[in-house]
Amino acid sequence: MTRTKLFLFAAAISMFLITSCGKKETLPTDNQQVITVKTGKTAGHQTGNFLNVTGKTEAEESANISTRMMGFVTKVNVKTGQKVSKGAVLININSSDLDAKRLQVASGMIQAEAAYENAKKDKERFENLFKNSSVTRKELDDILTRYEMAKAGLTAAQQMKNEINSQFAYLTITAPFSGTITNTFVKAGDMANPGMPLISLEGNSRMQVSAMIPESEISLVKSGQRAEVNIKSLDVRIPAVISEISSSAKNTGGQYLIKLDLEKYPEQVKAGMFAGIKIETGVVPNEGNENPTEIMVPASAIFKRGQLSGIYVVSDKNIALLRWIRTGKSSGDMISVESGLSANETYILEADGRVYNGAQVKISN
Q: So what's the pLDDT on residue 285?
């Protein structure tokens, strides 16, 4: 190969390497990528002056009860489904270590009390002797100092006794309110650790209904609004009022949590029951919608994760938001959505890349 051909070959290789490196550097990063999507839009969801959503019943008072002490569970006094009163003993935890400490504290308490009583008598006697000039001021001051030390020792012993007694309270687990045991997480012989749930308890005083409201409709909902709750399994309708509205949808896929207080509900209502909710809003119904209470979306827009059904909607800022939905009957390639979507929401049908919650998208229909 001549010198000229060698030079041309080397130049060609160099140009190839430069071109390859340049292409690698200009590839977009994940943070810069905008996903192009095709979308669809839901039909009207409001009927009359009402907003229809779904939710579940829950107890206003509920707690997962734990302990601050470590020890073996010696006895579980309740079963799932059992009703208990406030203060009832639910679980006993082994207290052999604390029993030994309690004996030590009791012994120290006796010594502290004896030292205090002795110092108190010396104080009174020397104060009388000092009045009669039978002892010096220095001798009286020494006795007064010993008295204050004995008094402080007695106070410290009492505090140790109180601390031991408070620790015993965490070994005998009692019900903080009256209610029904919904779950027991331990049995006799298990090791109880600080903060570990032992018993799940729900109160009997009042039931609520919780529901999720899409961001497109949260402006229609206000605290104090009247509503009607339909417990479908019991076929009962219960008047309710909105008592709580969450101000953030950061961790709920663009949906806002609300809670409603039930009024005059039957005893058969239990926590976890499915409920249809009709909220008075004053919204004018959408015209031209044959069945305005039903939302239908293509089956291809819905995905499954275990037992959950989800769909991605597009926010006003072209951000993909994950929305968990409850689906109903299907008709051809369309599926009805009973909760999770509302009127005039844009959802993603197809995408030229992997869609995820919070992704920046560009609509191209």
A: 43
User: Strands of 172-174's sheet, edge to edge?
Assistant: 172-174, 89-93, 71-76, 191-192
Given a contact cutoff of 8 angstroms between Cβ atoms, the answer to whether 241 and 261 are in contact is yes
pTM: 0.48
Give the pLDDT of residue 10.
43
Question: 203-255, pLDDT tens digit by residue?
Answer: 877 889 999 888 878 888 888 888 989 988 888 999 999 999 988 877 777 78
pLDDT score recorded for residue 88: 92
Instruction: Report pLDDT digits (tens) over 71-126.
Output: 889 999 999 989 999 999 999 988 777 778 888 888 999 999 999 999 999 999 99
Domain architecture of the chain: domains with CATH: 35-45+290-363 (2.40.420.20), 50-60+206-280 (2.40.30.170), 64-94+171-202 (2.40.50.100), 96-169 (1.10.287)
Residue pair 39/349 in contact (Cβ under 8 Å)? The answer is yes
pLDDT at 218: 86
